[in-house]
């Protein structure tokens, strides 16, 4: 009898264990596997929602309306939409395409473009790791508001600024430093009277980090489920909030401020153009690495160009739709723009919107809805940033499981965020955020768009035109940018700077064309020689970007997929690159006026260290090999033939899988060898024809 009972108990325990394991796998599913063995999104919709969640964050509901408020009027949409089409979409196409084609995070992807670009690939990982630390603390402050939204009456009634400064942030005012007249020397440095940890901020930060860990520790299988909530809920709540805001008294006057006003004279100011580029740049989320990382989990031949357009387009639609809520509140509060007064993002989120909520019937409900929306939007951006770092470590071949890596990474990140939870944390956040965004992030994206269109298959170019011509042309490009911004800031006018920089570029271009090797030709005469040298200039100016486009289209284009358009590399190098260089140049004069603040100095030094890390990868690339698995370190080193597609992309799926031979593998290997050797084999001719 006893044995039968024991046996029954053991069987029951086995059943319970089996059901528990089944339930665990259902709640935390393992990701699907692609043919090359890499984790894969459960669906294309999951990838799109995760990518949209990365860019559709608090910046859409807070920063964008503030920027538009300061530049109100329909004229705003001219520079804004130009920036979307000329900068955001091309850069997004690049990041998604290389992640999908090269089957890895940003370090592996840029190593495939050129072995010296591993630092460029590490740059987005650095930016995401730094930003996510203080981003979670910002979410902790919102959680404080969310908790207090259940109290009636709302505790910030009649003390909105006092509640924000003393109850939420709880940072005593610093003793401000100063510069001498003229700003040549520091008279005194800003000092901060308190340094203790703030318990509630630490607690809410720990809670946010737990949610981040929960969302990504099992990989894209679990993340693919979480994103339906993190994107679905904010869309629903934003629609509700927009409807309520537009029903407020005088809301129409606020909406008319944006959609019914025209101030054409503003287009003559460089400020509105710079602001539009900056907004599109930061709102889209380029340069954080998560588009490349997440695209690497796509099916290899997904429609990358269409995905990029959908992601960027949805971001534009969401932030402009959300702006209706803010401008409805602006009309209700009758807070009209004043000359010299600019509305910041924190003012909208923590002061203006809570004030509007107080005036609404059922204030607690609307407060809960508002801060829940902000929390979920911010959370969807936070976990994708940490996932960039997790992807780097998992791809590098660290001998630990993904759950173990993500757990350790989450704990370390929580400890790194503690300085922002102190009584000087708000000021540290401001200093780090300002310079990471204005220096490190812009430098990283500049490096991405310019390097990919400059050094990809550069030996093809030097073999065609000669190394001296290649060096002189690129000296003109980079030297022209440096001379242009230096002269412009030196004389205080953009015109002379543009003239000096462009003039230097033109001179170097002409010299490069003159010293370039003459192409082989059966024709004689001066005109034939001129045409030949002009063709050499095409190779110097456009070959790298155009060949990268052609090679990527072998994977992401063709069939029903959208091809990467031929003008995209031109936009990346000759529009995005110079624009980013100009924006980057404004950061250093600004820091010069703030160098008396230790928190500003901290953020500035941190951003410079990030830049140095990127540049060291170009000078000493072998030190970055630790971030790439051994069997993939030789990718990007294959011998190529001028104007011929590379065989590398066709064979990546074979190299990275456990397949050992087979008819398909032999065919791709043969094709790859044919491309590398330049032999026009029957298989290669058939592949070209197909």
UniProtKB/TrEMBL annotation:
<keyword id="KW-0472">Membrane</keyword>
<feature type="transmembrane region" description="Helical">
    <location>
        <begin position="194"/>
        <end position="214"/>
    </location>
</feature>
<keyword id="KW-0812">Transmembrane</keyword>
<feature type="transmembrane region" description="Helical">
    <location>
        <begin position="276"/>
        <end position="297"/>
    </location>
</feature>
<dbReference type="GO" id="GO:0005886">
    <property type="term" value="C:plasma membrane"/>
</dbReference>
<feature type="transmembrane region" description="Helical">
    <location>
        <begin position="470"/>
        <end position="491"/>
    </location>
</feature>
<dbReference type="InterPro" id="IPR037272">
    <property type="entry name" value="SNS_sf"/>
</dbReference>
<feature type="transmembrane region" description="Helical">
    <location>
        <begin position="435"/>
        <end position="458"/>
    </location>
</feature>
<feature type="region of interest" description="Disordered">
    <location>
        <begin position="658"/>
        <end position="690"/>
    </location>
</feature>
<feature type="transmembrane region" description="Helical">
    <location>
        <begin position="76"/>
        <end position="98"/>
    </location>
</feature>
<feature type="transmembrane region" description="Helical">
    <location>
        <begin position="365"/>
        <end position="394"/>
    </location>
</feature>
<dbReference type="InterPro" id="IPR000175">
    <property type="entry name" value="Na/ntran_symport"/>
</dbReference>
<keyword id="KW-0813">Transport</keyword>
<feature type="transmembrane region" description="Helical">
    <location>
        <begin position="406"/>
        <end position="429"/>
    </location>
</feature>
<keyword id="KW-1133">Transmembrane helix</keyword>
<feature type="transmembrane region" description="Helical">
    <location>
        <begin position="226"/>
        <end position="246"/>
    </location>
</feature>
<feature type="transmembrane region" description="Helical">
    <location>
        <begin position="119"/>
        <end position="143"/>
    </location>
</feature>
<feature type="transmembrane region" description="Helical">
    <location>
        <begin position="497"/>
        <end position="516"/>
    </location>
</feature>
<feature type="transmembrane region" description="Helical">
    <location>
        <begin position="570"/>
        <end position="588"/>
    </location>
</feature>
<dbReference type="Pfam" id="PF00209">
    <property type="entry name" value="SNF"/>
</dbReference>
<feature type="transmembrane region" description="Helical">
    <location>
        <begin position="600"/>
        <end position="624"/>
    </location>
</feature>
<protein>
    <submittedName>
        <fullName>SNF-domain-containing protein</fullName>
    </submittedName>
</protein>
<feature type="transmembrane region" description="Helical">
    <location>
        <begin position="309"/>
        <end position="333"/>
    </location>
</feature>
<dbReference type="GO" id="GO:0035725">
    <property type="term" value="P:sodium ion transmembrane transport"/>
</dbReference>
<feature type="transmembrane region" description="Helical">
    <location>
        <begin position="45"/>
        <end position="64"/>
    </location>
</feature>
